[in-house]
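Hey Z.,

So I finally got round to the flavin mononucleotide thing we talked about over coffee. Here's the setup:
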Amino acid sequence: MRIFEPFKVKNLELKNRIVMPPMCLFTARDGLVNDRHFVHYTSRALGGTALIIMEATAIMPNGRITDDCLGIWDDSYIDGLKRVVDSCHDEGALMALQLNHAGRKSEAEGEKENYTISPSPLASDAEYRTPREMTAEDMREVKQAFCDAAIRADAAGFDAIEIHGAHGYLLSTFLSPVSNQRRDEYGGSLENRARFLLEVLEAVRGVWPEEKALLLRLSATDYLAGGTNLEETVQVVNMVKKFVDLFHISSGGIAEAEIDVYPGYQIPLAETIRKECDVPVIAVGLIREREMVEEILANGRADLVALGRELLRNPYWVANNAWEADEPYEYADIYKRGFGRKF
Ligand SMILES: Cc1cc2nc3c(=O)[nH]c(=O)nc-3n(C[C@H](O)[C@H](O)[C@H](O)COP(=O)(O)O)c2cc1C
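And the result:
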């Protein structure tokens, strides 16, 4: 069964094909890791998840989605993150950290004026603050903050980082014409809209160790007339792939849209990007069952499969499925007795 076959990209030697996608716990205080993060991530490592991508972690205070998000804008965050990384490593998982700037979807610091930044001064919707348009100085600061965050993630022992370029957060708002109405070299044509992402990736690649994998999460389509779409995303992937080792393909988030959601609804997006751009991809989105994961892998539709909410419900998904399918599998030593004879 391919689920239990290893996969390698750069330093990431994954023992199986199951990834935990980033999912915010919204339980941090002052951006710091606490025991709930520790228990949560270590449980998924014990359950056999090969790669855990820790939740969106803010590179700047105004890059937090909420006040309860993890942060990495200061060296004081390294120790807490390292404690989680070391524990998950001990239980056999490899660790990535998602680096994010929330842009116009930041709700941190309540009503603070002029706090949120975005390519254009357009609110995400009526519930959100209106951001201020980023200046050249803002862009320089954000680039530097992504680089500093990558250096700290390395110091914390992460095997990989994932740059968040999806779901309507800062980098994706540059890509979409719905949120980017700039008239300078960062707006207009696709080449211009992709410029900031490309600059960030190039800068981060320069400080992130060469042997370590760099992941990029993208929303392949906005599901909006006049928004970005799969055809454009294929072009973006081709533009940035020299800096990226693995693409994590999601969708939506720029603005409210009609989305036809059903099991595996985002798989065709990942599959198209894998085939047209010749890059390794993670498929994600309403995937739960072993048979479906196997179908995706066996048909070459994705290299890895991320299970989000399924892993919230069932942290031992990998071990349980190995046991049910009678696959040869190295169970966590402390739980070996739980995976013995079935009668
Ligand atoms: C509670 C929760 C928090 C999430 N937080 C993040 C996040 O921090 N970064 C991100 O890129 N996606 C985030 N997502 C999206 C998930 O990574 C994933 O793409 C989504 O849940 C679809 O996969 P699923 O159907 O397997 O759950 C979150 C989803 C949930 C349910």
